[in-house]
Design goal:
globular, alpha+beta, four-stranded antiparallel sheet, 5 helices, about 140 residues, about 35% helix
């Protein structure tokens, strides 16, 4: 198997997940990410979590996600869905995207060849980064 870039699972909670499909498609089309698996997830008001493969979506959802089906189905298991469902607000829907950071393949390849590793990885939410950068720009 060739070296792949980092893989992430992202649960994007939004009232209508279909509206974010074009943004995800743009990232795929730009060669930034590769969709590995994708599900539409819903947490009902009673806490029940349901999921649908995008290929099984119907109506408007089917056309919104038509070009974004993942390459592997079944990667996300029941334990993953339970954890994701617990993170969603009751009555909420989300697009669950398992994706590879394609842009990072050269780095992953170089790390493998050098015997290196990522020692720490930390995610900073975009809103927090924006506030911090604005504060720095205001201070200069």
């Amino acid at each position: 198997m060739s070296v792949i870039g980092p893989v992430e699972i992202l649960a994007i909670e939004v009232e209508e997940p279909d509206v974010i499909a074009p943004a995800i498609a743009a990232a795929v089309d730009a060669g930034l990410i590769r969709i590995i698996d994708m599900l539409l997830v819903r947490r009902e008001a009673d806490g029940t979590v349901t999921s649908t493969e995008v290929s099984q979506a119907d109506g408007d959802a089917a056309s919104a996600w038509a070009d974004l089906e993942g390459e592997v189905h079944g990667l996300v298991n029941d334990d993953d869905l339970a954890a994701i469902g617990a993170a969603l607000n009751p009555g909420a829907a989300a697009a669950l995207v398992v994706y590879e950071h394609v842009w990072a393949r050269p780095l992953a390849d170089a790390l493998q060849e050098a015997g290196g590793r990522i020692a720490l990885r930390h995610h900073i939410p975009a809103a927090d980064a924006q506030v911090a950068l604005a504060a720095l720009e205001g201070a200069s």
